[in-house]
Protein backbone atom coordinates (compact mmCIF):
# COMPACT_ATOMS: atom_id res chain seq x y z
CA UNK A 1 0.00 0.00 0.00
CA UNK A 2 1.33 3.39 -0.95
CA UNK A 3 1.30 6.43 1.25
CA UNK A 4 -1.78 8.62 1.05
CA UNK A 5 -1.11 12.29 0.36
CA UNK A 6 -3.29 15.26 -0.49
CA UNK A 7 -1.69 15.58 -3.92
CA UNK A 8 -2.50 13.27 -6.86
CA UNK A 9 0.21 10.77 -7.65
CA UNK A 10 0.51 11.86 -11.28
CA UNK A 11 1.59 15.40 -10.29
CA UNK A 12 5.29 15.99 -10.03
CA UNK A 13 6.75 17.25 -6.78
CA UNK A 14 8.16 20.21 -8.71
CA UNK A 15 4.69 21.62 -9.36
CA UNK A 16 4.01 24.45 -6.85
CA UNK A 17 1.15 24.14 -4.42
CA UNK A 18 -1.68 26.45 -5.56
CA UNK A 19 -2.42 27.28 -1.93
CA UNK A 20 1.12 28.33 -1.07
CA UNK A 21 2.03 32.00 -0.86
CA UNK A 22 4.91 32.89 -3.17
CA UNK A 23 7.84 34.63 -1.52
CA UNK A 24 9.10 37.45 -3.69
CA UNK A 25 12.77 38.41 -3.44
CA UNK A 26 13.44 41.78 -1.87
CA UNK A 27 14.40 44.41 -4.41
CA UNK A 28 17.98 45.47 -4.12
CA UNK A 29 18.48 49.18 -3.78
CA UNK A 30 21.49 50.46 -5.67
CA UNK A 31 24.21 51.67 -3.35
CA UNK A 32 24.88 55.39 -3.75
CA UNK A 33 28.17 56.10 -5.44
CA UNK A 34 30.66 58.73 -4.44
CA UNK A 35 30.25 61.74 -6.70
CA UNK A 36 33.60 63.32 -7.45
CA UNK A 37 33.44 65.30 -10.68
CA UNK A 38 30.25 67.19 -9.85
CA UNK A 39 31.51 68.04 -6.35
CA UNK A 40 34.93 69.38 -7.33
CA UNK A 41 33.87 72.97 -8.03
CA UNK A 42 31.73 73.25 -4.87
CA UNK A 43 34.60 71.70 -2.93
CA UNK A 44 36.96 74.43 -4.12
CA UNK A 45 34.42 77.04 -3.02
CA UNK A 46 34.09 75.40 0.38
CA UNK A 47 37.87 75.24 0.84
CA UNK A 48 38.45 78.89 -0.09
CA UNK A 49 35.49 80.22 1.91
CA UNK A 50 36.44 78.25 5.00
CA UNK A 51 40.03 79.39 4.69
CA UNK A 52 38.95 83.04 4.74
CA UNK A 53 37.69 82.54 8.28
CA UNK A 54 41.33 82.65 9.34
CA UNK A 55 41.34 86.46 9.08
CA UNK A 56 38.48 87.17 11.52
CA UNK A 57 39.83 84.38 13.72
CA UNK A 58 43.22 86.10 13.85
CA UNK A 59 41.75 89.55 14.48
CA UNK A 60 39.44 88.32 17.24
CA UNK A 61 42.29 86.49 18.97
CA UNK A 62 44.53 89.57 18.83
CA UNK A 63 41.78 91.51 20.64
CA UNK A 64 41.01 88.90 23.29
CA UNK A 65 44.45 87.51 24.11
CA UNK A 66 46.03 89.32 27.07
CA UNK A 67 49.56 90.74 26.78
CA UNK A 68 52.31 90.15 29.29
CA UNK A 69 53.47 93.07 31.40
CA UNK A 70 57.24 93.03 31.38
CA UNK A 71 59.89 95.08 33.16
CA UNK A 72 62.97 96.28 31.33
CA UNK A 73 65.94 95.05 33.35
CA UNK A 74 68.98 96.27 31.37
CA UNK A 75 70.09 98.55 28.57
CA UNK A 76 70.18 95.71 26.04
CA UNK A 77 66.42 95.32 26.14
CA UNK A 78 66.26 92.43 28.54
CA UNK A 79 62.76 91.78 29.84
CA UNK A 80 61.43 90.02 32.91
CA UNK A 81 57.74 89.26 33.43
CA UNK A 82 55.95 90.66 36.44
CA UNK A 83 54.53 88.30 39.03
CA UNK A 84 51.83 85.99 37.60
CA UNK A 85 52.09 87.63 34.17
CA UNK A 86 53.78 84.57 32.67
CA UNK A 87 50.48 82.71 33.04
CA UNK A 88 49.20 84.70 30.10
CA UNK A 89 51.32 82.48 27.86
CA UNK A 90 48.86 79.67 28.53
CA UNK A 91 45.89 82.04 28.35
CA UNK A 92 46.90 83.14 24.85
CA UNK A 93 47.14 79.56 23.67
CA UNK A 94 43.89 78.48 25.33
CA UNK A 95 41.93 81.43 23.92
CA UNK A 96 43.11 80.65 20.43
CA UNK A 97 42.29 76.97 20.92
CA UNK A 98 38.69 77.73 21.92
CA UNK A 99 38.26 80.16 19.04
CA UNK A 100 39.68 77.63 16.59
CA UNK A 101 37.36 74.91 17.89
CA UNK A 102 34.41 77.23 17.43
CA UNK A 103 35.50 78.06 13.88
CA UNK A 104 35.94 74.38 13.07
CA UNK A 105 32.50 73.57 14.46
CA UNK A 106 30.96 76.35 12.38
CA UNK A 107 32.67 75.12 9.21
CA UNK A 108 31.53 71.54 9.81
CA UNK A 109 27.89 72.46 10.43
CA UNK A 110 27.60 74.91 7.55
CA UNK A 111 29.23 72.43 5.17
CA UNK A 112 26.78 69.74 6.26
CA UNK A 113 23.89 72.05 5.40
CA UNK A 114 25.00 71.89 1.74
CA UNK A 115 22.77 68.84 1.35
CA UNK A 116 23.18 68.35 -2.39
CA UNK A 117 26.98 68.19 -2.00
CA UNK A 118 27.33 65.97 1.04
CA UNK A 119 30.04 63.38 0.80
CA UNK A 120 33.77 62.73 1.24
CA UNK A 121 34.86 65.23 -1.41
CA UNK A 122 33.29 68.20 0.35
CA UNK A 123 34.41 66.85 3.73
CA UNK A 124 38.03 66.83 2.57
CA UNK A 125 37.62 70.35 1.23
CA UNK A 126 36.07 71.57 4.49
CA UNK A 127 38.87 70.00 6.52
CA UNK A 128 41.48 71.57 4.25
CA UNK A 129 39.76 74.94 4.51
CA UNK A 130 39.67 74.67 8.30
CA UNK A 131 43.39 73.82 8.31
CA UNK A 132 44.07 76.87 6.15
CA UNK A 133 41.98 79.02 8.48
CA UNK A 134 43.90 77.67 11.46
CA UNK A 135 47.25 78.41 9.85
CA UNK A 136 46.19 81.93 8.88
CA UNK A 137 44.84 82.47 12.37
CA UNK A 138 48.15 81.63 14.01
CA UNK A 139 50.33 83.64 11.64
CA UNK A 140 48.10 86.67 11.08
CA UNK A 141 46.97 86.74 14.71
CA UNK A 142 50.52 87.21 15.93
CA UNK A 143 51.05 89.95 13.32
CA UNK A 144 47.88 91.76 14.39
CA UNK A 145 48.91 91.50 18.04
CA UNK A 146 52.42 92.82 17.36
CA UNK A 147 50.94 95.79 15.54
CA UNK A 148 48.54 96.51 18.36
CA UNK A 149 51.19 96.43 21.10
CA UNK A 150 53.97 98.03 19.11
CA UNK A 151 56.36 100.10 21.22
CA UNK A 152 56.92 103.53 19.68
CA UNK A 153 60.14 104.45 21.49
CA UNK A 154 62.91 102.57 23.26
CA UNK A 155 61.98 102.01 26.91
CA UNK A 156 64.30 102.88 29.79
CA UNK A 157 65.52 100.49 32.41
CA UNK A 158 62.78 99.89 34.96
CA UNK A 159 59.91 100.73 32.61
CA UNK A 160 56.97 98.37 32.38
CA UNK A 161 55.81 97.52 28.88
CA UNK A 162 53.10 95.30 27.42
CA UNK A 163 54.52 92.43 25.40
CA UNK A 164 52.27 91.28 22.57
CA UNK A 165 50.61 87.87 23.05
CA UNK A 166 52.21 84.97 21.27
CA UNK A 167 51.13 81.51 20.11
CA UNK A 168 53.97 79.33 21.31
CA UNK A 169 52.70 76.01 19.92
CA UNK A 170 52.15 76.03 16.14
CA UNK A 171 50.30 72.71 16.37
CA UNK A 172 47.26 74.49 17.79
CA UNK A 173 46.21 75.23 14.22
CA UNK A 174 45.05 71.58 14.03
CA UNK A 175 42.19 72.32 16.43
CA UNK A 176 40.00 73.77 13.67
CA UNK A 177 40.31 70.92 11.10
CA UNK A 178 39.92 68.26 13.80
CA UNK A 179 36.70 69.85 15.03
CA UNK A 180 35.42 70.22 11.46
CA UNK A 181 36.01 66.53 10.78
CA UNK A 182 34.45 65.50 14.08
CA UNK A 183 31.34 67.64 13.58
CA UNK A 184 30.79 66.46 10.00
CA UNK A 185 31.35 62.82 10.94
CA UNK A 186 28.90 62.98 13.83
CA UNK A 187 26.25 64.57 11.62
CA UNK A 188 26.83 61.86 9.03
CA UNK A 189 26.33 59.13 11.62
CA UNK A 190 23.26 60.86 13.01
CA UNK A 191 21.70 61.12 9.53
CA UNK A 192 21.61 57.35 8.96
CA UNK A 193 20.94 57.71 5.22
CA UNK A 194 23.07 55.89 2.70
CA UNK A 195 22.99 58.86 0.32
CA UNK A 196 23.32 61.37 3.21
CA UNK A 197 20.07 62.98 2.07
CA UNK A 198 21.50 64.27 -1.21
CA UNK A 199 18.40 63.18 -3.15
CA UNK A 200 16.21 65.27 -0.89
CA UNK A 201 18.04 68.46 -1.78
Describe this structure in words.
The protein is 49% helix and 6% strand. The protein is mostly helical and 201 residues long. The chain has a three-stranded antiparallel beta sheet with strand order 2-1-3, with no helix packed on it. β1 and β2 (79-81) form a beta hairpin. The protein is elongated. This is DUF2567 domain-containing protein.
* Total strand segments: 3
Measure the end-to-end span. 71 Å
Count of helical regions: 5
Structural class: mainly alpha
How would you sum up the global shape? elongated
Low-confidence stretches: none
Q: Biggest sheet: strands side by side, in what order? A: 2-1-3
**Main sheet properties:** 3 strands, antiparallel
The H-and-E topology, N to C, reads as HHEEHHEH
Question: Mean pLDDT across all residues, rounded?
Answer: 80
Summarize the amount of helix as a percent range. 40-55%
Keywords: Membrane, Transmembrane, Transmembrane helix
InterPro entries: DUF2567 (IPR021213)
Protein name: DUF2567 domain-containing protein
Pfam family, one: DUF2567
Provide tags for this entry.
single chain, 201 residues, mainly alpha, three-stranded antiparallel β-sheet, 3 strands, elongated, membrane, DUF2567, transmembrane, DUF2567 domain-containing protein
Could you provide a short overview of the structure?
With 201 residues, this protein is mainly alpha-helical. It is 49% helix and 6% strand.
